Amino acid sequence: MKKTLSLLALLALLIPTVMADEGMWIPMLLGKNQAAMQRAGMRITAQDIYDINNACLKDAIILFNQGCTGEFVSDQGLFLTNHHCGYSYITRYSTVEHDYLTHGFWAMSRDQEIPCQGLTATRLVRMEDVTNRVLSGISDKTPEEERERIVKQNITIITTEAVAGTHYKAIIKPFYYGNQYFMYVNEVFTDVRLVGAPPSNIGKFGGDTDNWMWPRHTGDFSMFRVYAGKDGKPADFSKDNVPYRPLKHLDISLKGVDEGDFTFVFGYPGTTQRYVTHDQMELQAIQENPIRIALRDIRLRHYKNAMELSPAQRLKYASKVASIANGWKKWQGETLGINRLDGVNQKKAQEAEFQAWADKRDEYKNVLREMTRAYERISPIEIEWVYFNEGVMASDLMTRANHLFRLANTQDADEARTMCDKMSANNEKFFSDFAEHTLVDRAIFVDAMLYTYRQGQASYIDQLRGKTPVEQYLGQVYDKSILTNAGKLLAMFKKYTPKQASTLLNDPAVKLFTTAYASTYTTDKEHIYDANKREINRLMRTYVRGMMQQYPDSNFFPDANLTLRVAYGHVEGFRPKDAVYYTPYSTLAGIMDKENPDIYDYVVEPKLKQLYKTKDYGRYANLRGEMPVAFIATNHTTGGNSGSPVLNADGQLIGINFDRCWEGTMSDLLFDPAYCRNISLDIRYCLFIIEKFAGAKHLVDEMTIVE
Ligand code: ARG
Ligand code: GLU
Question: Which of 212, 659, 661, 662 for mutating ligand 1's site (highest number of atoms within 8 Å of CB)?
């Protein structure tokens, strides 16, 4: 028995067929998955999800700006997304008197809704396979650069024609590295208004401490409304606009979920790299991630020390730390996961299979060898760039030195004046917000530079420091730069003209930046990098096409590319490590367990405590009388899926996707059903917060609820 099992497991490793639950499928082609989805428990059809002739679930989904997903939940244009997706708008429209970020925001009537400038909501009208037209005029012999040019030209012609005489916008995206192309005809709404957001200690409960982790208790949602012109078409903000009436909005189920239940996620995943060879996996997960992590460790350590000092300091660094920590934590999970799965060797085994097949085929036999050679050429360059971006550019000193460098290179006096005025305003704000900041930033600058230097990645420092010891030299750069002297800097901006460019370039920080930049981004390196990246893309296109021929019976899903996809799976717990089992849902009781009034991430609102004490959950409690908060499932998701609806077997809304468990964040490269889980907010907690906590029942009344 044992033997057959391991043999099967070995086979599963070798054949790159998609594992159960893995995959982000194209809605238009979902017919191919329908049988499997129904076997897994789905009770609706592929056509209910995507249908070109009738209103269907896809009409309820929107792309929120260019990075999150949202879903309509009323016939009045009301939609849900994550709190962390709406974050920048909630912050932007907050003031000291009306601090929506801290206290939450609820429009009690339509006229209180806040127009969000620049925010777009994009609905997919239809999609189409346009491969033949995009590739017309191209043969196997067309050189790669020429191919790119023709593709671009064809795309312009096809998209222009597709939307002629309409208000739609069309885009075409490559799939399978350019083996296939799909066109997306979209309707882009530009009058989008903030309707509701819980206070941060609900919407961001657990903060960065709990980010990427299970068990999770974050009420990560916010609400917006799309407005349109009276004709129902997109229109820029106007008082005369009316709520948009979507062709379809989602029904909401209060039945909740149980372990084993079928679920699917419908949204806009950003990027995955399912088919890359061991070369890319090794470069990224084994070589680059640890560098990124180590350099961010330095930054986070210094920021966190500062944040311990006072609540004011904590607030100052909160959003900066949130964005640094988000990638930092994800990469740790990714590398851990790849190592646990022995991912690089798994890839090599797959490649050996491919090679054996390809040896007899001229078109394919050299692909993998050429790939490895191309990676050998780009790897050292890319690693150097990682050091530059994460190490040299770690401090505010260096980002700001970059700005001065740009200024010094501007010869036009008017342009320079505009830049100075803008920088002057920015720096004034910078210094008033961060009075003590130079201490923290100095430490980050010195430590991150030193680390980079000691890894042999900043040897240009030797030309600059002369006989001064490195650490001392770096300290001097910091202390002597005009960038760390607010008075001098602002005075300089006032009277600067391009004639003074050389003084700027002689500033020690600008000089260091300039030297670092010039030695890291040489024309030579950029040329090698671009040429080999292009070559890798061509090789990947060939390799993926080859694998599809090698395994004609497998259904290969295309990597995520910020187009609408369906992922499906089951609600399921998992074993993150030996002797630990994670159950699949969390409850309000867990929020109370985590409560700690002294730790910012774990403060609980008095009102929420009251509701917990009196068990005032209304119709939102589960059958056990608990208030469910979040759940995990095996749906294959990635960044961009934030805010995506999580639906049940009947296509009803049961949750909002907002994260993944970090033991499974390698799923962008390698999916493992034993570890990969998406994290969703239970829709019942969302409605409970709106109705019971915020007293905004009028918003729930707009929705279609199935009890
Ligand atoms: N990890 C989630 C994502 O990648 C949430 C990020 C926002 N939350 C945070 N605590 N930084 O978008
Ligand atoms: N939080 C992520 C987002 O903003 C989703 C988590 C993931 O990467 O799966 O899209």
Answer: 659
